[in-house]
Design brief:
binds ligand 56B; mainly alpha; two-stranded antiparallel ribbon; 306 residues; single chain
Length: 306
């Protein structure tokens, strides 16, 4: 996580298209210092939960395919989370490692009750196969064993995931420097922590080490709040829904500046209140705010990472 923090800070200080506005951060921190809005994990009631290892298996499958819900305007994260939940409720072995290795695009569509091909469907299927195979090879087929191997460390869990599953290696090269974001690996740790309320499979002594999850909703919210400012050419691209290429300077800056800005916001709120604030909590608040705001325009990048 230190690498996520330091490399995203490097991007923020060398950024050409996105600026982090410290006055904007100060304003948000000032507003939040008295009442930091607490958003409950699963505030929408769409996730599977049985307080046991099957929930861990469900969350790993969910975060394996938790990316790119566009250009299909009707598709959203909620369809994914609830579709996988219904699947598991009717067939408890649906996410067994051997079955994960065999799913096809049409079968995944059927699970989600989706009438047409999913965005990046072939990649979603490939990543499910990858996770099924590696779970079988290294963790007796069980996501719970993977989590147990992290010995209550979220940072270790993220490192283990990056090591075992190439699809979770969310990094890029920016102006010659390697930048780490690890969005889906971090969100898996956060989902466990949220679902299990910091107990059992969600008991991570270093949950404070996690950063926010750099997706396409959070940068848009931060821009709306005046925390991020876009160069006019980038603002135009986003306004016109023009695709931004994965790995481009613009894309890396949008994601990295978001991580950096929220780290700064967190430090400031903690200083003002004398209480520790977690990036996970800020992320959930920003994300929940973003998805309730249908007019919010986000950047469009075809990516398997978010
Ligand atoms: N930063 C951040 N990004 C998040 C999430 C979540 C879901 N987390 C759930 C877990 C527990 C809570 O109950 C949350 O509901 C999804 N995403 C990202 O959003 C995008 C989808 O958006 P739309 O097209 O509108 O559905 C896509 O990139 C997806 O990867 C989050 O928490 N934080």
């Amino acid at each position: 996580m230190e690498e996520v923090r330091s490399t995203t800070a490097w991007v923020a200080t060398h950024s050409s298209h996105v600026t982090v506005d410290f006055t904007g951060i100060e304003k948000v921190a000032e507003n939040m210092k008295n009442s930091l809005p607490k958003v409950e994990w699963d505030f929408e009631g769409i996730h599977y939960f049985d307080n046991g290892p099957l929930t861990v298996q469900y969350l790993l499958v969910l975060d394996t395919v938790n990316f790119c819900f566009w250009p299909d305007e009707e598709m959203s994260y909620d369809h994914l989370a609830s579709g996988l939940k219904v699947t598991l409720e009717s067939d408890k072995s649906a996410f067994d490692a051997d079955r994960l290795q065999k799913y096809t695009g049409p079968q995944l569509r059927k699970m989600l009750n989706w009438p047409r091909p999913l965005p990046l469907e072939d990649e979603r299927v490939r990543l499910l196969h990858e996770v099924g195979l590696e779970l079988e090879r290294s963790f007796e087929g069980k996501a719970s064993k993977l989590v147990e191997s992290s010995h209550n460390s979220a940072a270790k869990l993220v490192a283990l995931m990056a090591c075992h599953f190439p699809g979770f290696r969310d990094h890029t090269v920016y102006k010659g420097h390697q930048i780490f974001l690890y969005k889906r690996a971090q969100i898996f740790a956060a989902d466990l922590w949220g679902a299990f309320k910091g107990q059992g499979y969600g008991d991570f002594e270093d949950i404070s080490s996690i950063t926010i999850f750099a997706d396409y909703i959070v940068p848009a919210v931060l821009q709306q709040l005046g925390v991020l400012r876009y160069h006019s050419s980038l603002a135009n691209i986003i306004m016109k829904n023009t695709e931004i290429v994965s790995g481009s300077e613009e894309e890396v800056e949008l994601r990295a500046c978001s991580v950096y800005a929220v780290e700064k916001m967190k430090e400031l709120i903690s200083k003002k209140t004398g209480k520790q604030v977690l990036s996970v909590e800020l992320d959930l608040w920003l994300w929940a705010f973003g998805i309730q705001c249908p007019s919010l325009q986000h950047h469009r990048t075809l990516s398997i990472y978010y």
